Amino acid sequence: MPAWSAIAPRLRRALNDTSASQIAEFAVALPLLLVMVVGIFDFGNAFNIKQKVTNTAREAARFGATQPTNDMSGVPPASILAIRDLVVQDLQNTKLNDCGLGSAAANAAGAATPWKWTFSVTCGTAGNLVLSVDRGNVFVTNTTISGTPVKMIGTSVVLQYPYQWEFSRVIGLLVPGASYPGTSQISVNSFMANQT
Questions:
Q1: pLDDT for 151-187, tens place per residue?
Q2: pTM
Q3: How many domains does the chain have?
Q4: Which domain covers residue 125, as residue numbers?
Q5: In this structure, is residue 180 part of a structural domain?
Q6: Which of 72, 86, 115, 127 could form a disulfide with 136 if both were Cys (CB 3.0 to 4.6 A apart)?
Q7: 3-state secondary structure string, 115-183?
C-alpha cells in the first residue's frame, strides 16, 4: 500500500485541475441561455403579430366607416361581409393565418344591437379567431355643445387573434415541471366615425 506522502501530491493535483470546469459551467448555463434566447424571439414575434393585427383592425374600421348604413337591415349586411373580407385579405397579405375566416358565418349580437355582428373560427389548438364589427358604436366625446357632450356614431372593430407561444416548449429545461400558458389572445380594438 502506497504511503500517504505518495498519494497526497496526486490527490492535490487532481483537486486543483480545472480543465473540465468550463464544460460543467457551460452545461449549467446552456438551459438558461436557451430559455432566454427563445423567450426574446417569442415575445418579439408576439409583438410583431400584435402590430399586424392592430393595423388590420384599423384598416377594417376605416373601411367600415366609409360604407353606407342603408344595408343594415340585410341578414347579414353586405357592408359587414365586406369588412370581414377586408380583414381576411389583410391577414393573408401580412402572412398571418386567417383560419378560414372568409367562410365564417356572421352572427348577430341580438335585437338590442342590430348593427353588431361577430365572426368566430377555430384556429386548431391555438384557440379562436374572433372578429366583432359594430357599425352603430356610439362614442361620447369630450366636446360639448351647450353643455351636452357630442356623440359620434362610428364603426368599431374588435379583432382577437390567438397566439401559440413557443416559450412553453423550453421552460421545462430551466425548471422541470414548470408550465407556461400555451396560447394567448391578442385583442385589439379600433374605432372610426362613420362618414355616411
A1: 888 999 999 999 988 877 777 767 777 777 788 899 9
A2: 0.77
A3: 1
A4: 19-193
A5: yes
A6: 115
A7: CEEEEEEECHHHCEEEEEEEEEEEEEEEEEECCEEEEEEEEEEEEEEEEECCHHHHHHHHCCCCCCCCE
